[in-house]
Amino acid sequence: MHLPMPTDAERVRSILTAAHSMTVVTDGQRTEIRHLDGTDPLGRLHLHPAEPGGHAEHRPAIRMEFTDIAPTPVRDRVRARVTLLGHLLTPYADESADSTCVEFGRAVLETYDGVRSYVGLEELDAACPDPLAPYEAGMLTHLVDDHAELVTLLLRLVRPQDGPPAPSAVLRALPVAMDRYGITLRLEERCGHRDVRLPFPSPLDDVEQSGAQIQALFSAARRRSHRNTLPA
Question: What is the per-residue pLDDT for 162?
C-alpha cells in the first residue's frame, strides 16, 4: 500500500522552516549562522530564476547548507541534508538586515538513506512547509519524555510486513519524525534499524488538528491485539 508522503519540495521547505542554523559558503569562506530562531532563511534571500544565456558563472557562487537532525535520541540522527545552490546578484553579508538577491540554481535534498533529488525554483515556490514543521521537535520530545508508554503502544500498529521477523528483535522504538501525514517510528534492532510510517486517518491542514489525529492512532493501537512488543 502506498502511504502518503511529503513531496521533495515540501520537505525542503519544511527543513528550511524548522532550521536553527545554516552554513553559508561564498568567496571561499564558510560561515556558520546559528540562532535562526524559526525564521525561514528564505526570508533573507530573494531567489530569482536563472537568466538565459548562462551569465551566472561570472557572478560569485553561494552555497547554503542545512542539516535536518532528529529531535529524539535515535540511532543515526541525521535525517536529511539540504543544499541551496546559486550565484549572488547582490553582495552577501550574514549580519546585514537587508535581503540578498540570488540567482537560484537548484536545491539538493539528500535523505539519510543516501537518496538524492533536485528541486527547481518553481517547485520550491509552489510548495508549502509542513504545518507541523515548527512544532515537530517539541511534540516528539514531549511524547518520548513524558509518554514513553504510548510509543510502545504504537508498535501494535506495525504491520507484519513492516515489522521485525520476531518481536524480540526490536531493542528500542522511538518516533523519528512527524509530518502532516503521520508519525514515523524507528525500530532499532541488534543489527541496524528500520523506519515504519504510521499514517494519520487524514492529512492535517494545521497544527490544531494534530491532537485529534494522534489520539486516533492511539485508539487504533489499543484496539489491536498486542502482536509487537519490546523485550523486558
Answer: 61
Q: What is the CATH number of the domain that holds 83?
A: 2.30.110
Q: What is the pTM of this model?
A: 0.88
In a domain, 122, yes or no: yes
CB burial readout 121-157, b (16+ within 10 A) else e: bebbeebebbbbbeebbebbeebbeeeeebbbbbbbb
Domain identity same for 168 and 64: no
The answer to whether residues 29 and 114 belong to one domain is yes
Last residue of a domain, one of 126, 157, 188: 126
**Domain's final residue, options 81, 96, 126:** 126
List the end-to-end C-alpha distance of the chain, in Å, as a whole number: 32
Where is average pLDDT lowest: 108-112, 184-188, 228-232? 228-232
Please count the residues of the chain. 232
Distances (CA, A) of 83 to 12, 61, 180, 186: 9, 13, 23, 25
- Decide if 228 is inside a domain: no
Judge whether residue 44 has pLDDT over 90. no
C-alpha cell at 184: 514515523
Q: How many whole angstroms separate alpha carbon 213 and alpha carbon 211?
A: 6
How do residues 83-99 score in pLDDT, each as one tens digit?
Answer: 999 999 988 876 666 77
pLDDT digit string, tens, across residues 113-151:
889 999 999 999 999 999 999 999 999 999 999 999 999
- Asked if the structure places residue 70 within a domain, the reply is yes
pLDDT for residue 43 is more than 90? no
Give the structural domain span for 62.
8-126
Residue 50: CA count within 13 A, CB half-sphere: 17
